[in-house]
Every structure is written in structure tokens, then in C-alpha cells.
Design brief:
Helix content: 25-40%
CATH architecture of the largest domain: 3-Layer(bab) Sandwich
Order of helices and strands: EEEHHEEEHHEEHEEHHHEEHHEEH
Number of strands: 14
Shape: elongated
Number of helices: 11
Largest sheet: 6 strands, antiparallel
Bound molecules: zinc ion
CATH topology of the largest domain: Hsp33 domain
Amino acid sequence: MSAAPQPGAALPRDTFSRFLFEGAGVRGARVHLAATSRAIVAAHPYPPALARVLRELAACASLLAGSLKFDGTLIVQLAGDGPVRLIVVECSTSLALRATAQWDEARVRALPPDASLHDLAGGPASARLAITLDPRAEGAMTQGIVALEGGSVAAMLEHYLGASEQVASRLALAQAGDDVAGVLVQRLPGAAGHDDEAWREASAALDAADMAALGLAATSDAGLTALFPGRDLRVFRPVAPHFACSCTQGRVEGALRIAGRQEIEAALAEQGRIEVVCEFCGRAYLFAPDEARALFAAAPGAAPTRH
Ligand SMILES: [Zn+2]
């Protein structure tokens, strides 16, 4: 389904849509996250530099996941032993987002407030940044490694898309408060020589765009037209990105069963109850001693308990 750009039509503040340059071999996507990025950074008391990087990764994850052809999840994961030890940003193809991170407060505080993802991670010697695609029912998971370079998250993702998808890509991100806006343009594979000019124009437009221009392009069709003047754009139906966590009582119970009876008894002896807090959304799952023990007594197919 598609719609012609309508001047002045404002979109919801959490919005995503794909678009095409008609007849010019360039495709793109735009995203604006407001309530969603606020919910993401509200999960933990993130240091400002880490919160900024999380918002940027959430915008990137939306731009990539919203363009996938299968039903599943895209996961951006950083793991290492730098100042930030772990980042997980998950975005489903229906644009349900959640994220979490673990960091060393003192080491992050020692970095400048504008520290890059490279600095937060401690560089490629300390950490690994990967993008995993999980198509659920439709096949095996695939994973690509993003080179952890200096510079912006947008530049890192541009290189990744160029290398992994073999598609020339330009990505611009901008933030104001908790709002983050992003526009991605890609040169369609097999684009002919006469599309060079459209591609150069699209790249130059992203180079020149500031937060105001990107924010407008992401939240109104008139703004998108203004970003790429003189181009005939086909804008696809918008999708609403939103914060959603996939944690459930059942999954927490499963995790407790995997932890094992011994572990649970030790925690009960220490705290008198079991409390599991979801790292993504902060929801607390509480188990009284009899409820925790019942997980092992009643679990169908559970390993027999030794006495
Ligand atoms: Zn949760």
C-alpha cells in the first residue's frame, strides 16, 4: 500500500515508513522515536553518553528491522569488558522495541559526555558488536559483525550495510532531548548509471540535514519532500514503533527452573523469597517460598529431584 506525500500531513511522533525515489533507483526509510526512546532509557539510570548511544541504536534497529521481508526480530548486541560491558537492542519487524545495558559507572564517568560507542565499548580489542536476524519460523538465525570504529553510530552502520548487504547506504541520525530521528537511503542493487545523480543528491541531502530537517522529514511527508527537493517520492504506509517487552511469568518460571532447585533454595535462605527483575522493562516477578518450590514439584517433565 502506498500514498503520495501530502504536504502538511503530520504523523504520530513515534513513526516509521519506507519510501522510494520514483524511477531513480534509490530507496529509503525514516523513523522518529519519542515515547519509545523515553521508555527505553527509563529502564535504568543510564549515564548520558550511554543513553544517547542507546537512542541511536534503537533508531538504527527500527530502520533496519522495518525494512526486513520476514516476520521476526533484529538484535543489536555489544558484549565485552570495556566501560560498557553489554548492550542489547531488540526490534521486531512489527517495530516493538526494547533495550538494556550493563556498565561500569566509574569507567563510564571517566569518559567525556560525548563519548562514542567505540569509546564506551573500549574499542574493538575489548568488545564485539553484532547484528542478529531471527526470522523465527522462517529459518535459521544469521549474524553479522559490525566493525567497532571511531565516529558515529550512523557511520558504523553505513559501513556494515555496505559490507554485509553490498548495498551503498547513507544513514543520518539526530537527537533532541529524548527524541531521535533517523533517515536511511540505499542505492537499489542494479541501479543504472543515470541514477548516479539521484544517489549523489540523496547522500548530499543527508550530509547537510540537521536535527530540525531530519525531525521534520521523519514526522511529516512535507518534511521528507523538503529533504529531497525535486524528487518524486513514493511513501509507504507508516508503522508505529513502540516499546514492548516480551518477558512473561512463564519465561521467568522457565529461567528459575533452569537455575535449579539448589540455587533457588540458596536465594530463599538469603532473601526469604525470589525476586526476578526484567532487565529490559524493570517489571518485578515475585515468588513466595511455596510458589518457588512448586515450580520444581509441579514442572511437567522436570528432572526427578534427588533427596
Ligand atoms: Zn520485561
